[in-house]
Model the fold of this input.
Amino acid sequence: MTWHEAYTQVLDLEAKKVVFDAPGYAGLDDWTLHTGEVTVGGIGPQLPAGMAPRWHTCFATDDPDASAKRVVELGGKLPMQPFDTPYGLMLIASDPGGATFYLIRPTKPFGKW
Done:
């Protein structure tokens, strides 16, 4: 497991706020959570009213294509194509029961974001 990110309507936590300037992410608010100098998780943009809070869990992979193929072989789904983020190439997947998770080929080692 590489990363956990919380999505909620309540954003009054002590966290380091980051505003991305990367293409496609300009102005996107995100917060990273730290233990000392190590980044341990994040808080995504505030959800619209009425949307249920949730956690996103990311698993690192060196080969997103092979990982995506394996997800499908095991009965999972890929609702969209992989996409680039400031943290690395990411894809959204779900298991046969519908639980959503993310796979990422990170641009930096875990804890260094």
Remarks:
- The CA atoms of residues 24 and 71 lie 27 Å apart.
- The first strand starts at residue 3 and ends at 7.
